[in-house]
Structure prediction request, 158 residues.
Amino acid sequence: MDIYVLVTISNGTVADVKFYKHLSEAIYDLNDLLEFLDLDNDSASIFSPRGMVFQIGNKAIKNGYSCRSNETFIIANPLHSLGFLVVGHHEPVGYHNLVKALYHLEKNRKEMGCHIELYQAMPVKNLKVKKESIEEYAAQEGNLDFEYSLISEYLETE
Prediction:
């Protein structure tokens, strides 16, 4: 059985070390720490016998693991027979907290398998299509009253 270790560092000094039998417990406690950590001076890391699992805080930001408040994470099954399928235990299925998303990813993988993945959702910007392409698709779908004004930011202007 693996043992997981949550290490909290404040101003360069080890502030706390906790041991866990289950990764989900360590992630849950890490989530609770997010309220109290000063991300400029503090950090927290989870380690397994194979190395670091996750890190937040000042060192994490330097290594590209930072989490901005406007980020959204979703858990999905990319191999579902119906196509890409967002899955989750609770509504809504998007998470603004990466630690919470990882916590729920572990639960979903436990139930459904390790093919379940974590994705970062971002608004689509600067992608445009021709209005004719939408007209053609809408006609194939039998939609004759498509409201193009509702998606105008995605339509090419002539």
User: Anything to note?
Assistant: Residues 59-69 have pLDDT under 50 and may be disordered. The longest strand covers residues 13-20. The longest helix spans residues 98-112. The chain has three domains: 4-62, 72-121, 124-158.
